């Protein structure tokens, strides 16, 4: 695992990015430590997806520093992506392959060849019921798909986990299961950056919450020990930002 001198797997420092004449990221600075869960909250158009695209090497900043486990995604996209497990809002898996086949195939593409027991162990850790392991993905719910995606992420043992709107479309039970899993991944040492509109989830699992407005962090809050976030307070901040964005 290659880290930067500061040991932070996710670094965005003073990042500026425009689409044509429209500035989208404006001096964005955001660092995530190993083992930390950072929730990025922001209204529509605040630049959350662009931030993800920048980390994945799909969008090139005009200036500033972006490092994923020490690699600049714009210069070395393959190296950066090797360090990232990315779970998009709608997980893309092979519909005609079973859960086990999806895991084996996608991990092979990433250069890993875990034994079947390891794949099953990861499914077990995610709470995906054993009766689904040999079923084709075609009939899976969104929650089940996310479990397969997280199992693959667990087996890749990468230092960076990026989650895009992970709880949208999940019922409260599935959201709680998913949050528990993300928590476990972070406790194993991954830096987790999640983009979300779900204040409850953010309050539940984030160590830090950043409010993104017009491409920069305008406010940040940290959980202090066992003191969690006050959701009503978050809502007030979020609503204000959404109004002023
Ligand atoms: N490929 C692109 N080309 C031009 N403009 C873009 C492109 N992608 C995003 N934008 C613009 O950049 C701004 C930020 O978009 P982005 O998708 O990053 O915001 P977001 O916070 O993810 O919003 P949402 O919550 O609606 O998904 C928006 O004004 C959007 O129209």
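Q: What amino acid sequence fits the structure above?
A:
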């Amino acid at each position: 695992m290659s880290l930067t001198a500061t040991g932070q797997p996710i670094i965005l420092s003073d990042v500026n990015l425009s689409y044509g004449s429209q500035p989208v990221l404006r001096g964005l600075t955001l660092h995530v430590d190993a083992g930390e869960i950072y929730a990025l909250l922001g209204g529509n158009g605040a630049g959350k997806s662009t931030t993800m695209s920048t980390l994945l090497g799909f969008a090139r900043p005009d200036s500033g520093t972006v490092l994923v486990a020490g690699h600049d995604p714009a210069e070395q996209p393959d190296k950066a992506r090797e360090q990232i497990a990315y779970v998009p809002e709608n997980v893309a898996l092979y519909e005609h392959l079973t859960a086990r086949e999806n895991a084996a195939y996608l991990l092979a593409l990433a250069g890993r060849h875990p034994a079947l027991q390891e794949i099953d162990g990861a499914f077990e850790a995610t709470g995906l019921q054993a009766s689904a392991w040999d079923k084709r993905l075609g009939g899976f719910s969104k929650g089940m798909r996310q479990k397969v995606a997280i199992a693959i992420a667990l087996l890749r043992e990468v230092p960076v986990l990026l989650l895009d709107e992970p709880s949208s479309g999940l019922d409260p039970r599935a959201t709680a299961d998913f949050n528990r899993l993300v928590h476990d991944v972070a406790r194993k040492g991954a830096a987790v950056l999640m983009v979300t509109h779900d204040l409850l989830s953010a309050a539940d699992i984030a160590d830090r919450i950043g409010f993104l407005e017009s491409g920069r962090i305008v406010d940040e809050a940290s959980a202090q020990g066992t003191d969690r976030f006050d959701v009503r307070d978050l809502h007030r901040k979020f609503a204000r930002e959404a109004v002023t964005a």
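Q: And what stands out in the fold?
A: The mean pLDDT is 89.
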